[in-house]
Amino acid sequence: MTLSATLAELVRDFKANGRIVVVGASLAGLRAAETLRGEGFAGSLTIIGDEPYEPYDRPPLSKQVLKGWVPADHTQLPRFRELDADWRLGVAATGLDRATRQVRLADGEQVPFDRLLIATGTRARQWPNPAEAALDGVFSLRSRDDAARLRQALADGPSRVLVIGAGFIGSEVASICRDLDIPVTVAERGPAPLVGALGGVIGEIAAQMQRDHGVDLRCGVGVLSLEGDAGGHVRRARLSDGTTIEADVVLASLGSIRNVEWLEGAGLAAGFWGVGCDAGGRAFDINGVATDTIYVAGDVARAPHVLYEYQFLAMEHWDNAVFGAEVAAHNMVSLEPDYYPHLLLPGFWSGQFGVNIKSVGVPPFGDEIVFMQGSVEERRFAAAYGRNGRIVAAVTFDHGKWLEYYARLIEQSAPFPPPPPGWDRPDVMMPIPAQFPEPGVPTAVPDVVLTGHDPNERRAEFRPRSR
Amino acid sequence: MHIVVDLNRCQGYAQCVFLTHEVFRLSGDEALTYEPNPDDARRLQVQRAAAACPVQAIVIGRLDGAERSERS
Fold it and tell me: Nearest 10 degrees: CA dihedral of A238, A239, A240, A243?
């Protein structure tokens, strides 16, 4: 038998009798499991999730769920095929032993695997003072339960909501508060909302939009402490500019933390920015060597991206979870040269204050911005981001139909400023500095981040040079 | 029934809103919101809305309830 025939036989045997474990039962985990079955994997499939719920969709939580239109438990994701999977829901994975190929669960059970997919995503960063975070009325927003609790608090008619952090989640929640006619204060350490993701020029437009809708927006201030009443309910916040805000609901929207702690000691390239992997989803070990049995997908993955100087790219985006999972799952049951690359042009959306904000590319990779179409005053426009004379990203406010035009230009590394499409051009079309914060300036971490070239941030083992 | 709208793909044509405003709504001119788990009685309406979407952004689940029996 030739080597390639032997390998093909091994793959056939694996697809019939192998054991795959997926850790993470959200969007990426579900879509990966469906893809595995769709690719003909008939072996044992185990899906582990720390939440007790079947996979559900998170974007509606900060929008239609908070608004009270859709109950939090109406967010189950659609299914596209039977999975015949062993679901372990409500029990977290707490460890990975690569030598014995076992995942350890919080209840002490060991789950053996031949191939593993890490899709553990992120969690909300909590208010850093535990005593203050434990006050009634202090919330974060990531899970279905979070959304149900915050929705109830909003329905109870708070006198004022304080939102700490004006990233996308914070801004969307502030928007919902205004829809519900609830007074809301937003405290942001950076110079404007959304500044980490979209820069100061767009941030200033977002700031004006918030104020026009009645948000009490305070930028360049931090929240020093939260104070409760005798009953343990939050009542006010002290700000770094010496003022206090009376509020009985506080949302800490401080960005996310990648769920990598359970991989401690496993020897993978796991750290603050997630688990390093190649563009096909194969996890790197701490020395930057690709593993053959462990794959990564979704918010917790970071992989080199061809469009951005092969820097590692971490994306907390919905379609990154879907496509990354499909690619990783395909590669888990395939052989070279049939591997797929996960070469997604990043893209996201956010509905807030009646405006649809959408983006493609990696805006913080750019240093200049030019308004291409529409009108900033009317808050319907398209703008492009550039770096070194090429277009790297675009953002639209109620101009989503044009985003594909910019996506094609970005994929081709087209010149910046790009040729304008259509007739609806602003008067001034000069590139100006995009005003992204310097590294180290405290502001919300954007949800798509270029994280440099290092496969990991912890102790690699350097081999001594033999002479 | 279970649906999801790929909002990267959605461009706010709002055909679904005209057809099934109980399930799909616009917030402003372009931002779509929707009921992800509509009542089964609306299945035909939702299927029509999905068919009418110019960018085919509405995805309807092909299993309903069947997966529940799988849970260990």
Answer: -90
Band (pLDDT 50/70/90 cuts) for residue A441 is low
- How many CB atoms lie under 10 A from the CB of residue A42? 12
Q: Name the CATH topology of B3-62.
A: Alpha-Beta Plaits (3.30.70)
What ipTM did this prediction achieve?
0.92
Query: Hey, of B30, B55, B68, which one would you mutate to test binding to chain A, going by the most A CBs within 10 A of its CB?
Result: B30
Which domains can be identified in chain A, with CATH numbers?
A: 3-123+257-332 (3.50.50.60), 125-254 (3.50.50.60)
Enter the pTM of the model. Answer: 0.94
Q: Where are the alpha helices (DSSP H) in A18-133?
A: 27-38, 64-67, 130-133
Min distance B19 CA to chain A CA atoms (Å): 19
Query: With an 8 Å Cβ cutoff, is B67 touching chain A?
Result: yes
Q: Which residues of A touch B34 (CB under 8 A)?
A: 60, 64
Best A175, A358, A378, A399 member to test B by mutation, with max B CBs in 10 Å, is: A358
Q: Could you report the per-residue pLDDT of A63-117, keeping only the tens digit for each?
A: 999 999 999 999 999 999 999 999 999 999 999 999 999 999 999 999 999 999 9
